[in-house]
Each structure stands twice: as C-alpha cells, then as structure tokens.
Write a structure and sequence with these properties.
single chain; alpha/beta; Rossmann fold; Syntaxin Binding Protein 1, Chain A, domain 2; 20 helices; 47% helix
C-alpha cells in the first residue's frame, strides 16, 4: 500500500504513518533474522538545508530510514540476543521516483509478458488441455514458480528467445527420448523390446512433455497477443519517448492512426509521455491528447497522478536530457555505495551520529512545491522488444549464477541491500518471501554483473511487487486534492 499512502498527499496521513511503521518493522525484522546490522543510507530530501520546501513524498526515504534505525536500535539493545554491535552490511533506501517508467512500460521478458498479457492470478495460470473423452477442453490450474525447471530457465528470457528455446527443447526432446520416438512413429508395429523401452521412459516422458507443452502453449498465446495488439510498434514508440527520439507529434500520429487500440495501451503510452515531458502537466496539450485517446475520467486521474512520482535529484536538473542517461542510475548508485563514493549530502548515513539530522528530520514540515523534471534510469540500448539472445547489456536469461550464488562472494565483501519504496516490477527483480517482507535479488542483468564485479552480494527489496495493472490502480487511488476533472479543459 506504500504508493497510494505516501504519494499525492500534502501531509502524512495516519494510515501513512501506520504503513511506514509496519514497513520499517518488517525491514528491521529481516535484518534481525539474518543477524545483519546495516549502515543505513537514504536518498535525502533536498530541503534538509531548511531553505527549500518539498513534497511529503520527497522526505519519505528520510522518515523510513529514521524509523528503521529506531527499530534496529531496539534489537541492538536486547540482552541474550546475538545481534551484531557493529555494522555488517549496507542498506540504501530509495523510492519509486528513481524510475517512474519501469512499472508501466511494456517489458519483454517471458515472466513480465505472462503477468502483463495473460489473465493470471498471482503465479496461477489456467491452461486448457484436450479432454480425454474428446469433448470440451478441460481447464487445469498450474503454478509458474521455481519448482518448474522450464519456467526457472526461461522466466527472464526475452519472449522471442524463450519461444526459440522452447522449439529447440521440444525438437531435442523428441530426438533423444525413446518414448517420444516410438510415439512419433505413428501406427507402426512395435516389438516387445520397443514396448519395454517405452514403459521405462514413459513416466519421465509424461512429466517433461507436460512441462514443455505448457510453456509452448503460453508462448504461442503471448506471441499471438503481440501480433494482434501491434505491440512491437507500441514498444518502439515507448522506447523512443523514453530516449527522446519521439515526442508529441509521434504520440498524436499513433492515436490518430490507431483509434481502436486498447484503452490500456493508450493510457500507458500517455503516462510514459507525461513522465518524459513533465512540462505538459501545465499545458492544455495533455488534455487534448487524452481527449484524442478517449480516456475515461478514471484513466485521466492515473495520467495526472504521475506528477506525484516526479523526483528531486539535483542530477536531473543538470542533465539537458534526463532520459538519455549514459548509465543505469541504480547500477551507478550501487557501485558508488560499494566504493564508498556516494555523496553524503545526497545520501547521508544515519549511523553517523548527527543531532542536526534528527532535529531536521523531525521538525521539517512537508509543504507542496513544484517538483523538478521526472527521471528514468534506463540506459540507451537496443529496444527490449528487439533485443537478441545473450545481448551485451547482460540481459541473458541464464541466471544459474544468481540462483547458485557462490558463498565465496559473501565472504569477500559485505552484503548490499537496496530498498525501493513504492513497489518493484517483475522484470526488475527475482523474489523470495522472508518475514512477510518481499525481498528481491536485484534485476538479473544488473545483479549478476555487479555481484561479480563488486565481489559483494547485492539484494534488492521493495514494499510490493506490481504488475502494470496493479501499479495503475494504485495511481488512481492516490489522493489528488489539487486535481479536478472540471479544470482539465475537456
């Protein structure tokens, strides 16, 4: 609930305080369970110089860091509890403003597309299988989770890569499995020896063919939806907007030439547009675009509420084109954290005794001001929908190294934990559940490279794991007292 509780309000609500305290307690409980005592760093509000006013959302990382610290101090003071008395790891607290685009852009990994395009309930997928009696197809519920080796291998692969691998796997399976070979012969007469071989391979054959058939069916459905919705064209336009290669003209052209495109596609496109063109919040052009897109009043609210996720980093002010960043911001932050190079003014460490900090954090009022331009952490690269297998940006689907992380890495350097307030996306994280807090490994293409490069285990945590539809719903739930449909100019 962090997104809708912390963003869009001029003051922190009682529910917001309850959410923040619950989050802090769970974070501290995880560290207590791991017997880790972190150095707690956070994205500081630029208003801590007391000369600049800010939004309530801008100081949420500061408030969460202070509350986590208080919880950790309680564990540290307990007698007969083997909690470390000196720092053993590092925690960096950020928020969703570091990348507003990730939750709404179309991601092209197998996992992300399954949850985005198919009607899944969590990890539950309903498969239609042929009836044994030849009647209406039967429905079978399956879980797409780590116990499924095919899912485990392909979940972070690009959909085109996953489809190709599934085809190769089926071809290889038929050519090497004795039962499959016998079955593929058709009605030919089988010898007693053939029957014996089939019986020996039958159980393994049945399990493997079921798994492969399931994922071949899923991949076929996804590829059909991609073709029907024209998602390759949509994906290209989204990428061009993010990197400054497209603007208002291209969006208008899409809306005029694709008037029957699904409302969700047009909504997400306009949300990306306002995130990359925040000045449009203050013009009537956005209202006209939403009218052209025929968005409902509810969808308009989601578009306008994107303004509450605009960040406040000074780096964004210095960049002439913030969506053409040369480096992934999260990667850069983590590398600087590992090298002890994070600027202390922007990312203070609460472990450093500083009465001035505590006084400022408690006394600072949250007054609404106009935030600076939005921010994206996406580096310029081949569009995700067109990325080939084993691309150089590290987006390979083979995560065996991540899954079976060497204990030597943990011994070399202290763990790095990064917590993002406001939710994470499936393409960003692999996840496990610990102490009712969703803990995530940092997105595969970053974690593998950084863990190897830094010789330190990197773990990413978040307040929730959101699919695009869930994120949009949360945006609509935000309180937006200064937004009225009466002044949208429609």
């Amino acid at each position: 609930m962090a997104l809708e509780e912390f963003y869009g309000n001029e003051v922190m609500t009682q529910k917001g305080y309850e959410c923040l305290n619950l989050m802090a307690n769970r974070i501290a409980t995880v560290f207590a369970s791991l017997l880790e005592f972190p150095s707690v760093r956070y994205r500081a509000a630029k208003s801590l110089d007391l000369n600049t006013m800010t939004t309530i959302s801008d100081i949420i990382p500061t408030k969460l860091a202070a509350t986590v610290w208080d919880c950790l101090m309680k564990y540290k003071s307990l007698k007969n509890f083997n909690f470390p008395q000196t720092e053993t790891c590092e925690l960096l607290i950020l928020d969703r403003s570091i990348d507003q685009i990730a939750p709404i852009i179309h991601e092209w990994t197998y996992d992300a597309m399954c949850h985005d395009l198919l009607n899944m309930d969590g990890s539950k997928y309903v498969q239609e299988v042929a009836s044994k009696t030849g009647g209406v197809p039967e429905k079978k519920e399956v879980l797409l989770e780590e116990h499924d080796p095919v899912w485990l291998e392909l979940c972070h692969a690009h959909i085109a890569d996953a489809s190709e691998r599934l085809h190769d796997k089926m071809s290889s399976f038929v050519s090497t499995n004795k039962a499959a070979q016998m079955r593929s012969r058709g009605g030919g007469e089988l010898s007693d020896r053939d029957i014996q071989k089939i019986a020996q391979a039958l159980q393994q054959y049945s399990e493997q063919i079921d798994k492969l058939s399931l994922h071949i069916d899923i991949a076929a459905k996804i590829n059909k939806i991609i073709r029907e919705l024209g998602l390759k064209q949509v994906g290209q336009l989204e990428q061009d907007l993010v990197f400054g290669d497209a603007g208002t003209k291209e969006v208008i052209n899409f809306l005029k030439t694709k008037p029957d495109a699904p409302c969700e596609i047009k909504l997400r496109l306009l949300m990306i547009y306002v995130a990359t063109h925040p000045e449009k919040f203050r013009s009537d052009k956005l209202a006209k675009l939403m009218e052209l897109a025929r968005l409902s009043s509810d969808d308009m609210k989601a578009v306008y509420n994107m303004k509450f996720l605009e960040g406040s980093s000074e780096a964004k002010k210095k960049s002439s084109c913030v969506f053409s960043l040369k480096m992934d911001a999260r990667k850069e932050l983590i590398e600087k954290l590992s090298n002890n190079e994070l600027p202390k003014n922007d990312y203070p460490c609460i472990n450093d005794s500083s009465p001035t900090f505590h006084e400022r954090a408690k006394s600072k009022s949250a007054e609404m001001v106009e935030p600076p331009p939005a921010h994206s952490v996406r580096s310029r690269r081949t569009p995700t929908w067109a990325r080939p297998r084993d691309s150089e940006d590290g987006n390979s689907s083979d995560h065996s190294i991540l899954r079976h992380a060497s204990s030597d890495i943990k011994k070399i350097g202290r763990r790095i934990f990064v917590f993002i307030i406001g939710g994470a996306t499936r393409s960003e994280y692999l996840y496990v559940n610990t102490e009712n807090l969703t803990l995530h490994s940092l997105q595969l293409r970053v974690c593998h490279k950084l863990t190897t490069k830094l010789k330190r285990e990197v773990v990413l945590c978040s307040s929730s794991l959101d699919d695009p539809q869930q994120f949009i719903t949360k945006l609509k739930l935000m309180t937006a007292n200064d937004i009225s449909l009466d002044n949208l100019g429609i």
